[in-house]
Amino acid sequence: MAVRVSIPGPDALETPASGVGVVALPYDRDSVLASLEAHAAHPRPHTVEMDTLFARFRGPFIAYTTTAYAAGQLRDSLAELQGRLDSLERGTPQYQSLHARLSRLSDSLASIEIRGQRARATLSHARADFVSRSETLRTAIRQWEDSTYRGWDSIVERLAKARGLEPATDTTDGTGWARFTLAPGKWWIYARAWDTSDPNSEWYWNVPVDGDTVLLSSRTGQQRPRY
Questions:
Q1: Per-residue b/e over 32-68, b at no fewer than 16 CB within 10 Å?
Q2: What is the pLDDT of residue 102?
Q3: Does pTM top 0.85 for this prediction?
Q4: Which of 61, 67, 160, 224 has its CA 20 to 30 A from that of 187?
Q5: What pLDDT, in 10s, does the model give residues 140-192?
Q6: Are the beta carbons of 3 and 214 closer than 8 angstroms?
């Protein structure tokens, strides 16, 4: 069985994701989590406060990454143009046209780099503020998780043994593919990947296997906050 992982890139286009750990599980992970959370003394704490902090940080982060991506694209275009110019004789109409375009792109890059420096400074300030405000909240969340999910390993081990199946793992290659050889039975594919648009968010999948190929993408996954 084959699994392909893809996520939206900085340009919002779906792109194969390499180096993503993919796990085939003989049980529904979400059902086990939901059962444990239902018995918790109280819901996960501080999610509203963390969501507010995430939202404040997201603006400076996107402003910086968008500018950095645009600058990278311009540098690639400039390098391509320079290569074409180097192969032409000076004074020809084509050379003059390309040289004028190179000059315009260079001016645009200089302007974007100035904006990028400002965006980096703003992001640095936002990150320091975020860390100082979120540290205590995240500690409380970790303590809740440690309490709520106590016994997780033994629970899922019993589930796997009861079904006579063992979880299997693989990592996506450069084209986003992972491959498994699974025994007959019910399986779910579980994976997580970074959200390139938000450092405090991730892509999450827990997808039942219903064929020889499973596609993990923005259409089949969920964007979740990384509390």
A1: beeebeeeeeeeeebeeebeebbeebbebbebbbebb
A2: 95
A3: yes
A4: 224
A5: 999 999 999 999 999 999 999 999 999 999 999 999 999 999 999 999 999 99
A6: yes
Average pLDDT over residues 30-49: 97
Q: Which two tokens stand for residue 29?
A: 């992970």
Cβ(184)–Cβ(203) under 8 Å? no
CA dist list (Å): 202 to 74, 91, 131, 194, 219: 28, 53, 18, 5, 14
- Cα–Cα distance measured from residue 169 to residue 26, given in angstroms and rounded to the nearest whole number: 12
Point out which residues pair with 191 in neighbouring strands.
22, 205
**pLDDT value for 10:** 83
Which SS3 state, helix, strand or coil, does residue 172 take?
coil
- Tokens, residue 140: 């409380």
Q: Find the helix or strand (DSSP H, E) in which 192 lies.
A: strand 188-194
CA dist., res. 28 & res. 24, Å (int): 10
**% residues pLDDT > 70 (the chain):** 100
What one-character DSSP code corresponds to residue 200? T
Instruction: Return the closest-CA partner of residue 79 out of 59, 56, 58, 98.
Output: 98
Q: What is the CA radius of gyration of the chain?
A: 24
